[in-house]
Amino acid sequence: MTNRKARLASIDDNPTITHQPWDTTEPLMADFGWSRGRIPKFHATSPFHRQMISRRMVTELIRKDYLIVGGARAPALRILADHVVELAKAGDTDSRQHLAHFLHDPLMVDKAFDEYPRRFRDLHSKYCMMTKLKNKRRSDNTALYFIEYKNRDLSDNHKGEDYSKGPERFFLPPRVLETEKGVQRPPHLQMAFDRWASKFKTEEFHHWWRMRHAKLRFWGVRNVP
User: Fold this and answer.
1) How far apart are CA 60 and CA 205, in angstroms?
2) Which neighbouring-strand residues pair with 68?
3) How far is CA 128 from CA 55, 76, 201, 220, in A?
4) How large is the C-alpha radius of gyration of the chain?
5) What's the confidence (pLDDT) of residue 7?
6) How far apart are CA 62 and CA 166, in angstroms?
7) Residue 223: C-alpha distances to residues 68, 108, 113, 115, 216 (Å)
8) For residues 193 and 173, is the Cβ–Cβ distance under 8 A?
9) d(CA 201, CA 189)
10) Residue 130 CB-density burial (10 A; 0-12 exposed, 13-18 middle, 19+ buried)
11) For labeling, which of 15, 81, 114, 121 is most exposed (least CB within 10 Å)?
12) Cβ distance 161 to 84 under 8 Å?
């Protein structure tokens, strides 16, 4: 019987293999948690669900240029939005593919890479702004935050838009300031919006809309227009 020392189970014979399954220093790849250097870990049913929420939030933020989210999703979205601009300012093929794997809409990848390098050429960090709203969410009393990109005046797609009030209907374009009336949007993105909004301008949707409001009133829901 040889007198060998007992070997600690925690010693790693191959130190080149790390315990992180991916490089968390890359944009959009930081893991969620509550320690420094991590993205705030907002509530979700699973890590996969949290990732899906993140992708949906970032995609809609690029599409609308603003988003209203509640709770810990707000600082997480602000960090991820800054990562999107970093990838867009890099401008290489790997960054575009990296963002395309993350977002849900390939058109938003083109929009980010076309617009953000020129829009944020004078900024080097903190491209996104987070403002706490006065009102809380009625259902669960959660704090609400208004997340928006800076330098809207340099944007071809969102210049002059007024977000102080929403549109009359959700399928209408955002309100535009009086000084910017008649501004022309890029044709391919305007066409994509018109195609999305066209399905809400049909007779079938109008019938569903009226029936839905009648049901809500019958169920006792208040503040139904």
Assistant:
1) 23
2) 146
3) 16, 11, 33, 40
4) 23
5) 55
6) 17
7) 20, 34, 41, 39, 10
8) yes
9) 19
10) middle
11) 15
12) no
Q: What are the per-10-residue average pLDDT scores of the chain (225 residues)?
A: 59 63 85 91 94 96 95 96 96 94 95 95 93 94 96 90 88 87 87 92 95 95 84
CA pair distance 110, 133, nearest whole angstrom: 31
pTM reported for the whole predicted model:
0.85
- Rounded Cα–Cα distance for residues 85 and 124 (Å): 10
Token code pair at residue 212? 């839905």
Which pLDDT does position 225 carry in this prediction?
A: 73
3-state secondary structure of 175: strand
- What is the spatial distance between Cα 99 and Cα 59, in angstroms, rounded to a whole number? 10
* Whole-angstrom distance, CA of residue 144 vs CA of residue 133: 6
Stated as kind and residue range, the H or E segment containing 131 is strand 128-136
> Facing residues of 143 across strands?
136
The whole-number pLDDT of residue 185 equals 87
- The DSSP code sequence of 133-174 is EEEEPTTT--EEEEEEES-GGG-TTTTTEE-SS--SSTTSPP
8 A C-beta contact, residue 204 and residue 211: no
Helical residues (DSSP H) of 8-162, grouped into ranges = 47-64, 73-90, 93-102, 106-119
